[in-house]
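Now for a chain:

_____
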Amino acid sequence: MNGQELFGYASALVVGLVIGLAGGGGSILTIPIFVYIFSIPPILATTYSLFVVGSTSLVGSINHIWKKQVDLNVTAAFALPSFISVYLSRRFLVPALPDPLFQFERFQLSKSDAILYFFAIVMVIAARAMIRSDRPEQGEAADGRPRYGSLALDGLAVGLLTGTIGAGGGFLIVPMLVLMAGLPIHRAVATSVLIIAVNSFVGFLGDIHHTGLNWNFLLPFTGLSIIGIFAGMYLARFVAPDRLKKGFGWFVLVVALYMISREVM
């Protein structure tokens, strides 16, 4: 094992640490790690990301359920449509995308490059949301009564995003749960972690029918990430959430710009 691979495995601890601290954001790190450190093809990297983030988030969600911070009714309303969308997009949409995705004279855009560009754009949007630290206090559900229809429609949209680029979408889920379900921010974060966990596993199940997996690599990486989440959940008691999100947002923005510049070059 060379130095670059050792750095990659050490980064797995950081993935878990971030999920434990921020309640999401793991896929924002896993896909660049897999693609640029381990040289894993982008499509396969999204599959690996779904498994790692799903497994790590599941550990975090068990902790939140134990503390009774998860709203299971809201989870079901948001997650069931999202699960369907995730599975269908991973099982049928992503494999059906043509390669190259776009071609004009000598220029062509491969499916792998398109997914990386799309992922980088999502990272920029996520970074902007985290840097601004906008936390809605109330919205459609200001009366505390969840808008289940709106939650279901948004669940479908987030599922499509998760299925296409392998990202859990926590930066989208949390504001939706505050605005449309009337959840306090700490319960929205806890509920989001459970949705991300199951969403990721459903997307992963949609891939195993047509993807060969290197379990000798995937399981140790996931194990290190799970170790990281325990450290993150412990440190979360001492770190101001807003300061953490803003700092992580700047980091995500730098990584996104690096990805875009590298792909363009």
